[in-house]
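agent> Task received from the user: take the single chain below, predict its 3D structure, and emit structure tokens. No templates, no multimer pairing.
agent> Plan: (1) validate residues, (2) run structure prediction, (3) serialize to tokens, (4) report one or two observations.
agent> Step 1 OK, no nonstandard residues flagged.
tool_call: predict_structure(input=
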Amino acid sequence: MSVVSDIEKSQQPVSVAQYDVVVVGAGPYGLSAAAHLRGRGLKVAIFGKTLELWRYRMPPGMCLRSHWWATDLSDPKKQYSFNRFYKQSAKYQPGYPVPIETFIDYALWFQKNVVPDVDETYVSSIERKDKQFVLTLVDGRVVQSSAVVMAIGLYYYANRPEEYSHLPAELVSHSFDHGAFDHFAGKQIVVIGAGQSAVENSALLNEAGANVHLVARRPIHWLDPDRTEGRPLLEQLRAPTAGIAIGWVNWGLEHLPYLFHRLPQYRKDRYIRSHYTAAANDWLRDRVIGKVTLHEGQKITKMEQVDNHVEVTLSNGEKLQADHVMCATGYKVNIKNLSMLHPSLLAEIETMDGGDKDENTPILNSWFESSVPGLYFLGLTTLRSFGPLYRFVVGAKAAASRVASSAPRRVRRLARAR
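)
tool_result: status=success, residues=418
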């Protein structure tokens, strides 16, 4: 009887929920996009674990590089800013740098008030059929929409150096693979990298009780101490305050957020390469110097497993013994890594020439839309198209409002065609 019952169930048609837009990803960009799209009167679903990267992939004690006033999520009525959160909170006060715990609580407050119905189910497949998108969820549900907004964050873009891929995950990992560092107490840890993530993780590992060696191919570039607050008027005129950093160019990127897109691609690539190299905030200096062993200007020439640890050979011939190696080697956009994109859909997405050999970046129009009509990308995926503003939360407002201006037109066109 149970067998017959199962057969009958399998023969029943799967109900398909219909939406105007589906947002994939529930981080700052996904939540902001959903808020703006709903502000346009659209029927919107949003899937993904809320703030998964921030809550589970970043260590406690970490701080944001950006100021609180440059870290707002965006809703169309501008009611749920970080400033309002501070005013209503008895627990937090404005300050710099912003602890990640503060940002998480703010972003969850935003989500509960603006996008309370996030469906935390993952999307397993996205296909295009008859000008509509069909999304299958990991629990078997199927939804259909006129447009899809990919706000998938960093997870699929972790840059894992291929030369270390022969070593098991328990010995070599990416910094993205970890939350808290308590389990590294008493261990010998080698961190690879020269940017904010590498330096801050080294500090946090040391503070968690690990013995840390930081290996960087070039000397660490320490950013100047933050002087955003209290600058004289003349200095502000010469270099105005902006969400990314002070300076007229950064001010322009923030206040004219779509202008960068109009530049020739070679100029955009050249600007990104020359202006956004690895660097670490000055407030990390005292937590690292004299506490973490630095190997600056050194490359790793060999890494091999010896019993249950790793032997790391540096370009100067020095050998380090490690219980674990953490690669804080950043992220590279490669949409081929987005496993939820059906091969037939992936094949339709036109990508850019140039860039790093490991990159595969979609070509986007001025509305963040790919060559597949109705398929939008936000966040880091848009870096080569729209510039460095969209590496940071400060870019969420401009991206969300732009997509919310474009998607309704597509929804209306498809509705008229039915």
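agent> Step 4: summary for the user.
The chain has two domains: 15-157+331-417, 162-222+279-327.
agent> Done.
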